[in-house]
Every structure is written in structure tokens, then in C-alpha cells.
Amino acid sequence: MYICVQKLELLEVFYSKKKLAGFLDSQKEIEKTIGLVPTMGALHEGHMSLIKEAREHSDIVVATIFVNPKQFDNKEDFDKYPVSIEDDIRMLETNECDAVFIPSEESLYGADDYRAFEMDLGYLDKILEGAKRPGHFNGVVEIVHLLFEIIHPDFVFFGMKDYQQVMVIEKMLNYIHSDILLFRCPIVRESDGLAISSRNRQLNRTERQLALNLHLTLLDIKDEYKKTNVQTLIDKHTERLNKLKNVVVDYIEIADSDTLQHLNEWKSAGKNLVLIAVFVGKVRLIDNLLF
Ligand code: PAF
Asked: Does the CB atom of residue 162 touch ligand 1 within 6 A?
């Protein structure tokens, strides 16, 4: 007689830096590689695709959950950021994550050995998300640096929905932490095309429908690519979206995918990146498409 035993994956949950460090040291001693997936929680399929990618490349997969106040330029946005720790833990467990670190704000920014980390992000901090959300990327860089100092991962996994964030972190890796390898992971979409985001939870039913316009606009721009000049397309779609009730375009930009510099003329295939940020009701959503 065969008994089928389902393998139960055990997720280690750490609230303390010291205990996490102990766990990681024991893994590094036996030469295990560490893959890190930093998150702000409210986990979804997009995050799980990062965990899956991390699982493929690393021996030990560590996720972090911390809603980092320093990267919010708007207190209201921070206060209403969705939190679902218990569901997050369950999701990580079923997706074979090995460890999750859930620090308190005090344990990170209030620690005796805490030193503020700043670096010059250059023009990356002055355009698009950098321009619209002053201080945002400084906050991101600070927390990611802090997490790297605690975890010392071999690999780190970021989703390309936050395209500019990925470029910022890559710049940081060139400057410091050059031993960490960053994996760019593709955007995960709902079946109708909406990019999966924790912020989608804040949309009501009507707004959820309206939010589809982000992806549709990206696809339209891709379709019209080369038949119309760059600025005409940006203006046309900005105007069209702004006419929709409860929709306000923060920006539509068409940029060089390597530099994020504005394009005056189309580049060769695979180098044109359209980025969009739109308020749907009070919820600010971003998306992008490369073509
Ligand atoms: O992309 C995010 O969720 C956050 O910006 C990050 C990288 C976890 C830093 O707080």
C-alpha cells in the first residue's frame, strides 16, 4: 500500500534582525545562496512570480514585508496602504518561500547602529516618478540598502512594473553592493491586462473597469507606433483619458528604455518604452510597455 504524503513547506517568520541573521549565517555556512524579494506586503500573484523566480535561482528564498514610511511623499497614501500580514504569510508558505522578515519601523530606523544612507540618483530622481513623488526614490534606496546590509543576499528580484525603481536600484548596485545580482522580472497582468498591484485593492468596481484604460492606452500607443510622432501620441492619449470621469493622467511618457530619457523620435524595436501614471479616483496606478 502506498501512502501519499504531501510535502509541507515550512516558512520561517522573523520579526527580529538578530534571529534572521542567525538563520542566514547558518545557511551561508553551508554555502547556500540567498535570494531576496523585498515587498511592502499586500502580496499578490505579481509578488509570487518574484518568489518563483527567486526559487529557481537561489537555495534560500527570503521575502521581506515592510511598508516603508520614508518612500511615501503623501501621509494619506501611507495610511491607507493595504496591510494583510496573515494572508501574506499563508501565500508565502504555499509558494515555497523559506523565510520572511517582518521588521518594525523602530527596529530599522530606531536601531543604535542605524546610519542614514543617501546617494545621488542624478536625473533618475528628477523625472517621472522621481519628479512626481519627491523623496520617493531616496526612501526606496535607503530601505533597500538597509535590507541588503541585514540580509546580504546573492540575488535580488524586482518587478518591471516599477521600471524606474529597477533602474534606481541598478544604479545603487553599481555604486555599492556590486556583489548582488538583480533579476528584472516581467510584469504580471490580470487576464484582462490590468497590471497586478497591491493598490488595485483600493479600487471600487467602477474604478477597476476604468483602470483597464492604462493597459489599453499602452497597447494603442504600441499599435500607432511609427505612424504618428511621439509627442502627438502622448498629447492625444492624455487628452482622451482626461475626458473620462474620475480619471486624471499624471503623465504619459515615451522614453529610451536604457536611459529613460524622453524620445523625440522613435528608436529601433525593443528600445521604445511607454510609461503611464494615472489617478483612477484617488488611486494612483502605474504601468509600462516596451516595444
Ligand atoms: O517595490 C516595493 O514594493 C518597494 O518599493 C520596496 C522595493 C519593497 C521598498 O520598500
From this structure: yes
Ligand 1 mean position to 137 CA, how many Å? 10
What pTM, to 2 d.p., does this model score? 0.96
- Within-domain flag for 32: yes
Per-residue pLDDT, 6: 47
Q: What Cα–Cα distance (Å) separates residue 110 from each residue in 103, 114, 138?
A: 11, 7, 18
Write out pLDDT tens, residues 177-212: 999 999 999 999 999 999 999 999 999 999 999 999
The answer to whether residues 22 and 163 belong to one domain is yes
pLDDT higher than 60, residue 5: no
Residues 117 and 258 in one domain: no
Decide: 37 in ligand 1 pocket, CB within 6 A.
no
Ligand 1 atom 3: residue of nearest CA: 39
The domain of 152 spans 6-185
Residue 226 confidence class, pLDDT cut points 50, 70, 90: confident
Q: Does the CB atom of residue 172 touch ligand 1 within 6 A?
A: no
47 part of the active site: yes
* Among 152, 185, 218, residue at a domain's last position: 185
Closest residue by CA, ligand 1 atom 2: 39
Q: Which residues pair with 284 in a beta bridge?
A: 279
Grid cell at residue 50: 518574484
How many whole angstroms from 39 Cα to the centroid of ligand 1?
5
Cα of 61 from ligand 1 centre, angstroms:
17
β-sheet with 272-280: strand ranges across: 247-256, 272-280, 283-290
* Residue that finishes a domain, picked among 136, 163, 185: 185
Residue entry with cell 480619471: 247
d(CA 41, CA 38): 9
Instruction: Tell me: pLDDT of 3 over 70.
Output: no
